[in-house]
Write a structure and sequence with these properties.
Largest sheet: 8 strands, mixed
Helix content: 25-40%
Number of helices: 10
Strand content: 15-25%
Number of strands: 12
Strand order of the largest sheet: 2-5-6-1-7-10-8-9
Structural class: alpha/beta
Radius of gyration: 21 Å
Distance between the termini: 32 Å
Shape: globular
Order of helices and strands: EHEHEEEEHEEHEHEHHHHEEH
């Protein structure tokens, strides 16, 4: 039995969760929840026992000094509550932590216990994955759920993803089996510039969350940070002709996918073919992030041990002409749900 002392009765509460690690390319999702906590001055009311869920050789505790006294911060997941004012006030329960190393089912059950005690009406889990999307275009955000009724009511995609998953996918399914409405919002982060931060992806997640739960989110300096980030990546890409050419290829593919005459199936097949060829020669790298096909991937525009800059593999030329049909955006985002 979970007893929550000092937490007032909540108004139409929504739980918003994000976890650092495999589900958090560019730290976009965890930064989004941290932004909500900062802007609305969240008050932490609970923390999960780190001993139960984390391998401290993987996620090490940190030592710090407080007025000359050494203290330790343990890796864990914390819950805070914020009240969103306005004509229709409502409360958000913010869950921010690190993807657990073990006992995922117990971890999810404990979070669901908090949700039940607080009367949470909806769980929204934020995630970010690496995808073949150009940094110069709007960040694709896919909203998915396992609940067909919820999908129709909130204009979401019913997830059909199959493959490796992280704690985001496990928590969403745990909510579904417990009868708690749950939604996952995923941002696609350019795989060639995946190192954090990525304020553009964070901003896109918050904008989609704002629409989903019908609240006005103060964005602070995020829009300016997103513009500065894009300018910085533009400059990095311009330094390497192959990277610039690759970005242009992604732009053309993205723009073509948004045309009514483009075939979603044909373009999705071409992306899948490219992913298989790109990832076929190597094994997943430690500390990577989720990609469109569920594998791990590492950053490209970053310094490597040899002192140079790793370059992305060029995508293959299409073997057949694209067919005509519906746009590919929804198809591509379906395949990248987790």
């Amino acid at each position: 039995m979970i007893e929550l002392e000092g937490v007032p009765e909540l108004i139409d509460p929504v739980m918003v969760a994000a976890f650092e690690g495999w589900n958090d390319a560019g730290d976009a999702a965890s930064t989004a929840v941290a932004h909500l906590d900062k802007e609305w001055k969240g008050e932490v009311f609970a923390a999960l026992d780190a001993e139960d869920y984390y391998d401290f050789q993987v996620n090490r505790p940190t030592v710090w000094m407080d007025a000359g006294v050494r203290k330790i911060t343990w890796p864990t997941t914390r819950l805070s509550v914020v009240r969103v004012g306005g004509e229709k006030p409502r409360d958000l329960v913010l869950v921010r932590g690190i993807e657990p190393s073990m006992r995922w089912r117990s971890f999810c059950n404990e979070l669901l216990g908090f949700a039940h005690e607080l009367g949470v009406e909806l769980v929204v889990i934020l995630g970010a994955l690496l995808g073949d999307t150009p940094h110069t275009r709007p960040v694709p955000i896919s909203g998915t759920t396992s609940d067909s009724d919820l999908a129709q009511r909130m204009d979401l995609e019913e997830t059909k993803y199959e493959g490796p998953t992280g704690i985001v996918g496990i928590l969403q399914e745990a909510c579904t089996h417990a009868g708690v409405p749950a939604v996952s919002l995923w941002a696609a982060v350019p795989h060639y510039v995946s190192q954090p931060p990525n304020p553009k992806a964070t901003l896109a997640l918050l904008n989609r969350l704002e629409d989903l739960i019908d609240v006005r989110i103060p964005l602070g300096e995020l829009p300016e940070d997103a513009r500065a980030w894009q300018v910085g990546v533009d400059q990095l890409a311009a330094e390497d002709s192959e990277v610039a050419e690759y970005v242009q290829t992604l732009e053309e593919a993205r723009d073509t996918a948004e045309l009514p005459e483009a075939s979603g199936e044909a373009i999705a097949r071409e992306f899948e073919r490219y992913l298989r060829r790109r990832d076929g020669g190597g094994s997943p790298s430690p500390g990577g992030h989720a990609t469109a096909d569920g594998s791990d991937s590492a950053s490209y525009l970053r310094d490597n041990p040899g002192g140079g800059r790793a370059k992305p593999t060029r995508p293959p030329k299409p073997e057949t002409e694209p067919e005509t049909g519906p746009d590919a955006e929804a198809d591509d985002e379906d395949s990248s749900e987790e």
